[in-house]
Design goal:
Elements: H1 12-20, H2 29-37, E1 42-45, H3 53-62, E2 66-70, H4 74-86, E3 91-94, H5 100-111, E4 117-120, H6 128-135, E5 139-144, H7 167-170, E6 176-180, H8 185-194, E7 201-204, E8 212-218, H9 222-233, E9 244-247, H10 251-263, E10 268-271, H11 277-289, E11 294-297, E12 312-315, H12 322-329, E13 339-345, H13 347-359, H14 364-382, H15 387-394, H16 406-409, E14 414-416, H17 418-435, H18 441-449, H19 454-459, H20 475-487, E15 491-494, E16 499-502, H21 506-510, E17 517-519
Bound molecules: adenosine-5'-diphosphate and zinc ion.
Organism: Agromyces intestinalis
Family: Belongs to the helicase family. RecQ subfamily.
Catalytic activity: Couples ATP hydrolysis with the unwinding of duplex DNA by translocating in the 3'-5' direction
């Protein structure tokens, strides 16, 4: 596994040619490598597929000693190290999945100065014994991958990362490079502070992925919508079925959706952490090696899967944050060819996620954070402006309308929904006043549409003054209105049953002080558009 003869390179370009077989650096790579190889610190924000790995691998080859790489993805270390070793790099890792003998071999190589790169899980650096061990060798640099995990405000905080703040004091002379593919300005600041990278150079690449077309559709019959989408757009340049990933929230739904797709002639397979390791490995291998395989997965799938020709990423459930959405959709089109990110979401998603937040363990601050993440995701879903502009603005980057997202291609019409919103909100007010009771969307819509149900009879809700005043709109239109009011913060949903209540902002609507603009939504599932950027 380890090669004895040390390899030294005159220049970064030399290492790029000889070890990796590439002709030229991309984007900021050359400058980043210069900075770190020269002993300076760096913070690198670069989208997935941008080529972050070389930014620490090459400096590690150029400097004396071993580059220590902190990465939370233990499952990937093995693959990463294998790939490096195949390229003739002396690389190894230390993690809990190893035998004592394997570990001893890597440790010996490190101490003998025979390792170019050493991968470690962050919790290793929490251990005093591991730190003492590292002190006995020569460290060329520290690379902190997935650096957004240090940010408590971020979407993927890992407490083990906090210990990395110590690296600066303990190894003051060793350059450090922190890298991430998702960071808002707030997260970027947190990375800089917590990792003591105040003196670092910052390299912020554009987060735009211009070849990805973003589409977000209201959900009605999600499986049919998904099937229609895959048939129309899940194809490569020649019209053959293309590889794609469908993300769903639960393990059960990945299996059901995969089965449904298979019944309809799509080569689909489920993937989630509950499946046998063997099954998962085979699924992953088929996805990587064969053409046109669709994997229906929970977010457990995709981390570190380097498949360049994924033509689409579809979400049938709402992601929990814009960061998550960006990371997951970013797995499409790494080859730069036209690809699609398609998301369907509905009222149920909003209610379900609010409930999960209400019930989540952790303190109030934690729930607020989750709530803020969800709100940003909802704002992206409901925007009548360019999706890409909204997405990039979230990461603090300005851009013009893109011409390659659904709102740019088919600008949504807006309508004045003030009156229906008032009808709905005043129904809630009346019910709360009379019985001090709250209800979910279904029952409220029944009342507004004057639908006689056992529950309506039981409570005598047909005597409410708002009974039947909303029968000019369909059930589906009402559900769309509820969903949009939730997203706009004019309604809130609570608890297991998603009962609806007013917010501070609702008062203004009821008092006629503010109007409500809503997106016009198609009655039926919209036909998937085969429009793609040339
Ligand atoms: P990231 O970690 O930013 O997602 P990687 O480091 O995995 O990206 O790189 C993405 C892909 O691009 C890899 O297949 C890598 O080998 C390739 N790559 C990186 N830099 C270059 C380059 N300068 N020239 C050609 N290919 C590159
Ligand atoms: Zn756009």
């Amino acid at each position: 596994m380890l090669r004895a003869a040390p390899v030294r390179f005159a220049t970064a370009l030399d290492a790029l040619h000889t070890v990796f077989g590439y002709d030229a650096f991309r984007g900021d790579q050359a400058e980043i490598i210069d900075q770190v190889a020269g002993g300076g610190d760096a913070v690198v924000l670069m989208p997935t597929g941008g080529g972050k790995s070389l930014c620490y691998q090459i400096p590690a080859l150029l400097r004396e000693g071993t580059g220590v790489v902190v990465s939370p993805l233990i499952a990937l270390m093995h693959d990463q190290v294998d790939a490096l070793v195949r390229n003739g790099v002396r690389a190894g890792y230390l993690n809990s999945s190893q035998s004592a003998a394997e570990r001893a071999q890597v440790e010996r190589a490190y101490l003998a100065g025979e390792l170019d790169l050493l991968y470690l899980a962050p919790e290793r650096l929490n251990s005093e014994a591991v730190k003492r061990f590292l002190e006995r060798g020569t460290i060329a640099l520290f690379a902190i991958d997935e650096a957004h995990c240090v940010a408590q405000w971020g979407h993927d905080f890992r407490p083990d990362y906090l210990a990395l703040s110590e690296l600066a004091e303990r190894w003051p002379g060793v350059p450090r490079i922190a890298l991430t593919a998702t960071a808002t300005e707030a997260t970027h600041r947190e990375i800089t502070e917590r990792l003591s990278l105040g003196g670092a150079r910052h390299f912020v690449a554009s987060f735009d992925r211009p070849n990805i077309q973003y589409r977000i559709a209201p959900k009605n019959e999600v499986r049919k919508q998904l099937l229609q989408f895959i048939r129309a757009e899940g194809v490569d340049g020649e019209g053959r079925p293309a590889a794609g990933i469908v993300y769903a929230l639960s393990r059960a739904s990945t299996e059901k959706i995969a089965a449904f797709l298979v019944q309809n002639g799509i080569d689909a397979m489920p993937y989630h952490a509950g499946l046998d390791a063997d099954v998962r490995r085979r699924t992953q291998e088929r996805f990587l090696r064969e053409d046109g395989v669709v994997v229906v997965a929970t977010i457990a799938f995709g981390m570190g899967i380097d498949k360049p020709d994924v033509r689409f990423v579809a979400h049938v459930d709402l992601p929990k944050s814009v960061e998550g959405y960006y990371q997951e959709t970013g797995r499409a089109g790494r080859d730069g060819l036209p690809s699609t990110a398609w998301l369907a979401y509905g009222l149920h998603d909003v209610v379900q996620q609010r409930r999960m937040i209400d019930e989540s363990p952790g303190d109030l601050a934690h729930r607020r954070r989750l709530s803020a993440h969800l709100d940003a995701m909802l704002a992206l879903c409901e925007t009548v402006q360019c999706r890409r502009q909204n997405l990039l603005a979230y990461f603090g980057q300005r851009s013009d309308p893109c011409g390659n997202c659904d709102t740019c291609l088919e600008p949504p019409a807006a309508w004045d929904g003030t009156v229906p919103a008032q009808k709905l909100l005043s129904t809630i007010v009346r019910l709360e006043r009379e019985r001090r009771q709250r209800y979910g969307a279904g029952h409220l819509i029944d009342i507004l549409r004057g639908k006689r149900t056992p529950r309506v009879d039981q409570y005598g809700h047909d005597s409410l003054s708002t009974w039947g005043i909303g029968d000019d709109l369909s059930d589906q239109q009402w559900r769309g209105i509820v969903r949009q009011l939730l997203a706009q913060g004019l309604l809130q949903s609570h608890g297991e049953y998603g009962v609806l209540g007013l917010t501070e902002a609702s008062g203004g609507v009821l008092a006629g002080e503010r109007t409500v603009q809503l997106r016009t939504e198609p009655e039926r599932a919209p036909r998937a558009q085969a429009k793609r950027a040339a």
